[in-house]
């Protein structure tokens, strides 16, 4: 059988022994949106500006959270003003009472802790996390009372 003859193909193709690589037609470049994106993203700085500028505008337009506008620690708010107005003796009494109350809480002496916190709160309504410590002491005292009620029943 004779070999087929194609007049449009040359007899020997350059690189005929190499594998043929398929190149798909670039259909995205034909659409106007794709051409616009290609033109924008050629320049990295321009692309960053087009992306970041709207994001910054949206973030600036969002309302601030309440936690950012209000002070996070109540002791740094109105209570600290009262603490600053105290005399040196009162400041030392408040600090000592708070430290003693914290130590009594750690030791499990919840009733004494509550009395120290009551002394502290007579001078200043709130100091650091004294209200939180007071609630912990209340919970601890309640727990101790429950355990004492259960002991005579179990014995």
Structure commentary:
- The chain is mainly alpha-helical and 155 residues long.
- The protein has two domains: 39 residues; 70 residues.
- It contains seven helices and no strands.
- Helix 5 packs parallel to helix 7 and helix 6 runs antiparallel to helix 7.
- The longest helix has 25 residues.
- The relative contact order is 0.06.
Record the SSE blueprint.
Elements: H1 32-42, H2 44-61, H3 66-69, H4 78-85, H5 88-107, H6 110-123, H7 130-154
Helix pairs in contact: 5-6, 5-7, 6-7
Short précis:
The chain has 155 residues and is mainly alpha-helical. It contains seven helices and no strands.
Please give a handful of descriptors for the protein shown:
7 helices, 0% strand, mainly alpha, single chain, 155 residues, elongated
Strand content: under 5%
What is the number of strand segments?
0
Q: What string gives the helices and strands in order?
A: HHHHHHH
* Number of helical stretches of at least 4 residues: 7
Terminal-residue CA separation? 112 Å
Helix content: 55-70%
Broad shape: elongated
- Specify Rg, calculated over alpha carbons: 39 Å
* Number of separate structural domains: 2
